[in-house]
Amino acid sequence: LKGTALPGPLRAHLWMQRLGGEEAFQRYSEQLDRKMKKRGVGTEGVAESELNGAILRVASDLYSTTPTLAAIADSGSIGHSVAVLGRSCVLTGLRTRLDRSVLLLAPFLHLYPTLHPSEQHYCRWLTLLMEMDNHLPHVADIPDQARNVMLRVKSTRARLHEHLAALHERHAASNPSAEGALGVASLVEGWLSTGLVNSLSSQSLFWWWDQCFILGWDALEGACGRLLLKLEAEFLRCSAWDAALRVVVEQPYKLTPARLKDCFADQE
Fold this sequence. Notes:
mainly alpha; globular
């Protein structure tokens, strides 16, 4: 199956199994039920939570400004996001990055749609989101993985690395308050955090996730490094750091699965 775009039914089955299947669903259902009882709230209480206003604002903004989310959305996507993330906040004690969660949830809402979701549907989506968070690099590990990517770029494409480092150095000198600890490695931080949901077209995104579910999400770091190298010409044309950041967000969107295939070429 490596390198292929999975047919819809097989994709739905494989993703579900890789994310824990029925066992994970039962586990999260029980945890959520216990949390709700402990807090003395039911599903109505979650629906009326004041946090939902914040979730709604984040979801509405991302669905209106992220081309891939707009392409796969239906009339219920934003409302379903609010409902699922409200339950996520109950389960995690508000330890949820709303923007990242909205992005990660979107492919699951599209792949497992329903017009009139029940509590079971919400919990199924919640399970997929929570398990997906476990498959992606942990937030604390992303900086090191981003640096690893840039070290490989430095060792294989020294000219590219020098150019990006110079752009970042000039940007940091003129914007001291914007200087981040990751430096040039911040270019791939978003890719590693969200699995490229906000950078690939819908067709390419589902293909990319197929590869990561087939090979294992440990393949993401290496694939992101190869994607960065694939965009070398676009980066070398940049004369400012802001332009390099736009390349990271905009250029992958133009790449089809056929052009992305070699990002996973040597992974087994």
